[in-house]
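Entry 14. Structure prediction run on the chain below.
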Amino acid sequence: MKALADTIGQVFSGNEEIKETLSMIEQEGYHVDLILASVTRVTRNEGYASSDIGISDFDRSFLEKIRIRLEEN
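Output returned:
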C-alpha cells in the first residue's frame, strides 16, 4: 500500500500542469496543501480478470490521467 501511495505521489509531483497551477496559486499569496482522497480496494486474486471488476469509462479516464494503464484482455 505504501508503494502505491508513493507512486501516486510521484505522478502528481511530476505533473507539470499541477506544478504550474500550484505555483500560480502560491504567487497569489496562498499556501497550498494538496490532499488526495482515494478509496483503494485490495482483494486476493481468485482468478478474476480485470474486465470482471466493472471499470467504468469515468474510472478508466481517471486512471489514465494519473498514468495508470489497465491491461486489455
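The radius of gyration is 16 Å.
Filed with the rest of this week's runs.
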